[in-house]
Amino acid sequence: MRTLVVTAVSAERDAVAGAGAADVLVSGAGPAAAAARTAAVLAREAARGRPYGLVVSAGIGGGFAPAAPVGSVAVASEIVAADLGSETPGGSVPFASLAELGFGTAVHHPPRALARAAAEAAGAALGPVLTVSTATGTAERAALLARLHPGALVEAMEGFGVAEAAAVCGVPVLEVRAVSNAVGPRDRDAWRIPEALTALGVAFGAIVPVLDGWREHSDERH
Ligand SMILES: O=C(O)c1cccc(C(=O)CC[C@H]2O[C@@H](n3cnc4c(=O)[nH]cnc43)[C@H](O)[C@@H]2O)c1
């Protein structure tokens, strides 16, 4: 089975490729670029008779305290479009998701057994990973996201786009993130990118054999 790994930038590609990931696409940052480029590659390879059997969104991300400290790794149990929807005035929850607006799904589910096995192999946390179009830069928004998405481990900017492309092409999806910074007030100088890229590479070294051994029909849900 062929696996396509999608990263936002080349430094993330180098981390996963150095750990044994064979096919790695650099999509650019954000869910739209990730969706467009992932869908194009999946469709092209399927048309050539060499379809991918799994897509993995991988890279660094912001971690929600205290569950996901800098340097830790998270595997997504759910890939959630966290800011795709509408603000709503009044009430206790000032946001309605895409699904609540009646426009489709706001959550994609990786195959359960695969996500669990990947997390175990990497010593990673398993939980919801949020996709945002605007990286969080205030304590207020961090608190709101944590309230809207209890148990969220990480936010990043590509997972839901990769997952949408995978769903359109009928391919299961996984997301793996290494934490470079805390979700909260923006402080780019505090990002620990080299440490996160090292953690991503180490995690991938453990996860690649799990991906190679995984068969879709052996999983109970995708
Ligand atoms: O400057 C570098 O050397 C460098 C190396 C690797 C990655 C980067 C990035 O800037 C990656 C951008 C990518 O990272 C995700 N990310 C990281 N932290 C957050 C966050 O707090 N909130 C949302 N996204 C985050 C995201 O997926 C970006 O596309 C630079």
UniProtKB/TrEMBL annotation:
**UniProt-listed Pfam families:** PNP_UDP_1
**Class of this enzyme:** hydrolase
Give the matching InterPro entries: FL_hydrolase_MqnB, Nucleoside_phosphorylase_d, Nucleoside_phosphorylase_sf
Taking every annotated instance into account, which residue ranges of this chain make up the domain Nucleoside phosphorylase? 24-188
GO cellular component, as recorded: cytosol
Q: In which pathway does it act?
A: Quinol/quinone metabolism; menaquinone biosynthesis
Q: What is its EC number?
A: 3.2.2.26
The leader peptide range reads: none
**This protein's UniProt keywords:** Glycosidase, Hydrolase, Menaquinone biosynthesis
Q: Which GO terms describe its molecular function?
A: adenosylhomocysteine nucleosidase activity; methylthioadenosine nucleosidase activity
Biological process per Gene Ontology, one example term? nucleoside metabolic process
Catalytic activity, as annotated: futalosine + H2O = dehypoxanthine futalosine + hypoxanthine
- Summarize the protein's role: Catalyzes the hydrolysis of futalosine (FL) to dehypoxanthine futalosine (DHFL) and hypoxanthine, a step in the biosynthesis of menaquinone (MK, vitamin K2).
Give the family this protein belongs to, as stated in its UniProt record: Belongs to the PNP/UDP phosphorylase family. Futalosine hydrolase subfamily.
Spell out the protein name for this chain.
Futalosine hydrolase
